[in-house]
Design a protein that fits this description.
Blueprint lengths: L8 E7 L2 E6 L11 H11 L1 H6 L2 E3 L10 H13 L8 H4 L3 H7 L15 H8 L11 E3 L1 H14 L8 E6 L2 E3 L8 E3 L4 E5 L3 E8 L2 E6 L1
Antiparallel strand pairs: 1-2, 3-4, 5-9, 6-8, 7-8, 9-10
Helix pairs in contact: 1-5
């Protein structure tokens, strides 16, 4: 049986006028190349752009290197790739694959990386409903909640008659003095309570089908 050969190159949407290609001939190798598929998906549903619209930026535009869309995109794609900690972005801000996802290959200032590090991303993490002197980035919590529901409904040809939230909580063992730690009597260690995640399901026959959020 003849061998079915794959293409040597896979092309993706260009970024800032530059071609983005995936090849199999070595060179600079990244373990996160699959993230390009996430980027292609986001360009279809525009989740990052719509999520960015839930924030307002009170910083001086002439002093901004990393816009809110870049920060949101970094955080969303970083978590999707397994980089939950902000500390990871001190390295990821130089990663070309992450730069392609953020749509920003070069910094505007010579003393900056193309993407944000942990300190700048922390400004997004500490955002609140109303901006303050020290917290210039604010979010609209109602818009965020509405976005999650809307994006779920858009994934169905017909809106489901019923939505089920199946929440679960867990804890992460700690080995230091982090804020919010507690002693878990059942497991016998210090830990921090993680955010619960839910499985949103729509009624389908006698069971449920859904997706994790």
């Amino acid at each position: 049986m003849p061998t079915q050969c794959s293409a040597d190159l896979f092309g993706f949407a260009p970024v800032e006028g530059r071609r983005v290609e995936v090849a199999f001939d070595g060179g600079a190798v990244t373990s996160d190349a699959g993230a390009l598929l996430l980027g292609a998906t986001d360009r279809v549903i525009d989740l990052v752009g719509r999520f960015t619209a839930c924030f307002t930026d009170g910083r001086r535009p002439d002093l901004i290197e990393h816009e809110v869309r870049t920060l949101v995109g970094q955080r969303v794609f970083g978590i999707a790739l397994g980089y939950e900690d902000l500390n990871d972005h001190d390295e990821l801000r130089h990663d070309p694959a992450m730069a392609v996802l953020a749509g920003k290959l070069e910094a505007r200032r010579s003393d900056c990386a193309p993407l944000a590090g942990k300190s700048t991303l922390n400004r997004l993490e500490l955002s609140r409903p109303e901006p303050t002197r020290y917290h210039k980035i604010a979010f609209n919590d109602e818009a965020v909640e509405r976005l999650f529901v809307t994006s779920f409904l858009e994934a169905h040809r017909t809106p489901p008659k019923q939505i089920v939230l199946d929440l679960d909580a867990t804890d992460d063992p700690l080995h230091g003095h982090q804020e919010g730690r507690f002693f878990h009597g059942s497991h016998g260690h210090l830990g921090v309570k993680l955010l619960s995640y839910g499985i949103i399901g729509s009624s389908c026959g006698s069971g449920y089908s859904g997706s994790k959020v």
